[in-house]
Amino acid sequence: MNCAATKHRATTVVVIGAGQAGLACSYYLSRFGVDHVVLERGEMANSWRKERWDSLRLLTPNWQSQLPGWGYQGDDADGFMTMGQVVDFVSGYGRACGAPVHEHTRVTAVRAASEGYRVSTDRGDWQCLSVIIASGAFNRPSVPAVAQGIPDSVCQLTPHQYRNPEQLPSGEVLVVGAAASGVQIAEEIQRSGRQVTLATGEHVRMPRQYRGRDIQHWMHACGLLDDDWQSAEDLQRARRLPSAQLVGSPDGRDVDINSLAAQGVQVTGRLAAVNGSRLQFSGGLANVSKLADLKMGRLLDTIDQWIDSHPAECADIPPARRPERTKLDGSAPLELKLGSGAIRSVIWATGYRPDYSWLNLPITDRRGMPRHNGGVTELPGVYFMGLPFMRRRRSSFISGAGDDARDICHHLLAHIGRPVDWYWMSNTA
Fold first, then answer.
1. What DSSP character marks residue 137?
2. Is 181 helix (H, G, I), strand (E, B) or coil?
């Protein structure tokens, strides 16, 4: 799917990024008869292919892996894909759809032009009327400024760089951040025989299974994954929430503060400061844990209410058994040593940021974050895709790409003078 470099080409739409979001847009653009190209800096599903650790699996079950015209075809609908399987799923989708992907084509700039936009790449430029930016929201690890105080003798990695425990030096490990990546990496390293400390700030706790079903089954059944961005009580906060403490393991186990502590992980509060060879932690662990338990309880209340209101569909559902509250024994340390004989590695599982350094358009804020309304920007014909809670709670899931892509492409059709009604009228005989 590569193309020879030329100086200047024209198309109606340029889609930037060949992950699930960009490929779903390509599906609808092709269906609507809109000429376009998909530009990809690496290969299709590049982030899944090159920016994940070895043992990672999807957090969503296989039955939830759905894209427009494409779905999971295996015999383990309740299982969880490995990264290799995700790569095959997404890239197989691109090939099956005949998406016009130009791989190994890095976008270096996007600028306004006299008629539309100019997209510059390391293999030539494209002139277009519309641009869909589907390059992802997780391009660059977000490492806090406190990391600058860590001595050079201490190994520091982000989840983008971490692959497995064998790449770490001997000695204790600090994992900073207790969202999905942090708790999974902490568990894996602890099981490898190293002592792990997990620095925990605000987090979202969920059981993997509840009342005989995967938690995603209930989130889907209750309609929570389709919560609309326009009706969110605090949209910006919802978009910033850390990912839930879940692991896509074949045994369906939970991974949370309780399970990690039972395995020997030392849990402490948020990393507050680095003072020479000493790490200092906040004393707020109890408060953030109580808040996580409270929010989990509200979620399970919603599920219980939905089950009670659907007796015919839920006749065989077992009674509710809530997970135990977070157990804290008051021994969380407020200070630890760095260096020889103590913590020798730090994993910064502190979230991600998009990288729009190549975007020469006024559609990001001072922090470089995208400004949009459900993926629609202030500039005519410029759209984002694949962002957290972009149009729905599941926008950043594989299963969320299709509906968002359809909505964005409908808006795009109107922009280029082919409203949706035109498409349906011209394709019915």
1. S
2. helix
142-348: what fold?
A: FAD/NAD(P)-binding domain (3.50.50)
Band of pLDDT at residue 39, cut at 50, 70 and 90: very high
CA distance 379 to 329: 54
Position 398: which residue type? I
- Enter the CATH code of domain 8-139+354-426: 3.50.50.60
Task: State residue 276's pLDDT score.
Answer: 86
End-to-end CA distance of the chain: 34
Are 222 and 302 in contact, with CB atoms under 8 Å apart? yes
Smallest CA-to-CA distance from 119 within 133, 132, 129, 109 is with: 109
Q: Concatenate the DSSP letters of all residues of 42-91 into one string.
A: SSTTHHHHHSS-TT-B-SS-GGG-EETTEE--SS-TTS--BHHHHHHHHH
Q: What integer pLDDT is reported at residue 339 of this predicted model?
A: 76
Q: What is the pLDDT of residue 239?
A: 93
Chain centroid, CA 278 distance in Å: 32
Nearest Cα residue to 247 out of 378, 7, 28, 56 = 56
pLDDT value at residue 319: 95
Domain boundaries, the chain: 8-139+354-426, 142-348
Contacts of 376 (CB under 8 A, 6+ apart): 383, 408, 411
Is the separation of the CB atoms in 64 and 57 below 8 Å? no
Other Cβ atoms closer than 10 A to 352: 19
CB neighbourhood size of 267 (10 A): 25
Angle at 255 between CA 249 and CA 257, to 5 degrees: 170
**Three-state secondary-structure class, residue 252:** coil
Q: Which residue has the tokens 């940021």?
A: 353
The beta strand positions in 269-342, using DSSP E, are 271-275, 278-281, 335-337
Distance, in Å, from the CA atom of 319 to the CA atom of 46, rounded to the nearest integer, reads: 43
Q: What is the pLDDT of residue 423?
A: 54
187 close to 164: Cβ distance less than 8 angstroms: no
Tell me if 8-139+354-426 shares its fold with 142-348: yes
Triad 20, 26, 28: Cα angle to 5°: 105
- Report yes or no: 269 and 193 within 8 Å, Cβ to Cβ: no
- Burial pattern 45-65, b for ≥16 Cβ within 10 A else e, equals bbbbbebbbebbbbbbbbbbb
Q: 83-97 vs 398-415: helix axis angle to the nearest 10?
A: 30
The SS3 call for residue 156 is strand
